[in-house]
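can u do me a favor
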């Protein structure tokens, strides 16, 4: 007698009963498959809905952050447009705060300025650019005892302002004085200077830096009756 051979998987039915069972199995398999596909489709829809909600919420939060940032920038621009600093207030600042005050005054006058002062700054504490594309480099010297800036500061600024920082306008700013020799040397060699008297006109009275330096196309900031030191 020949040995019975194993039936292969999905072998064709040989009897009516086997045919009926196979049909029932196929129908059941199709039913389960459809249910599974519907479940997966529903799961996919929920996943995509979750992703969409997450993206929308993220975009709403990003819009709110941008709106707050723009509002803060507008408020800062309005505040800077009204900026006035008394010399009494300036005298109480630290050297770093004085550099930031010079940056804000330059910003008030339409110069896009940033604070760069640090150790090894190569005679540049504030660098900015105005609407004409002119690069401004400011070296700030704060004093608490009425000190005076000497010629060596002018030499340092002259040596780095244009070669290193690309300055079109280099200026030394102090709340103290500047020696006669330093002023004369600066005038001869294109280094502008703001001493205490000029700082009063700039910070307290609201004259623009461009006006004080005698630059062309100088525009005065808006004249607003704020008390000195308000900022």
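np, heres the sequence
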């Amino acid at each position: 007698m020949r040995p019975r051979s194993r039936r292969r998987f999905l072998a064709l039915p040989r009897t009516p009963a086997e045919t009926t069972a196979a049909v029932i199995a196929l129908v059941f398999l199709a039913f389960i498959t459809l249910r599974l596909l519907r479940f997966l489709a529903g799961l996919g829809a929920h996943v995509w809905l979750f992703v969409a909600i997450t993206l929308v919420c993220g975009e709403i939060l990003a819009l709110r952050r941008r709106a707050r940032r723009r509002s803060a920038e507008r408020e800062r621009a309005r505040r800077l447009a009204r900026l006035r600093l008394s010399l009494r207030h300036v005298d109480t600042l630290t050297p770093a705060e004085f550099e930031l005050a010079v940056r804000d005054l330059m910003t008030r006058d339409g110069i896009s300025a940033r604070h760069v002062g640090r150790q090894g700054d190569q005679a540049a504490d504030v660098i900015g650019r105005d609407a004409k594309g002119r690069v401004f480099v400011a070296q700030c010297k704060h004093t608490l005892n009425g000190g005076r800036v000497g010629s060596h500061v002018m030499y340092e600024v002259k040596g780095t302002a244009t070669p290193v920082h690309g300055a079109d306008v280099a200026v030394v700013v102090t709340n103290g004085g500047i020696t006669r020799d330093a002023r004369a040397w600066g005038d001869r060699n294109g280094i502008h200077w703001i001493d205490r008297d000029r700082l009063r006109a700039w910070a307290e009275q609201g004259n623009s830096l461009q006006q004080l330096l005698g630059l062309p196309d100088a525009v005065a900031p808006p004249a607003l009756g704020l008390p000195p030191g308000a900022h």
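The two ends are 110 Å apart (CA to CA). hope that helps!!
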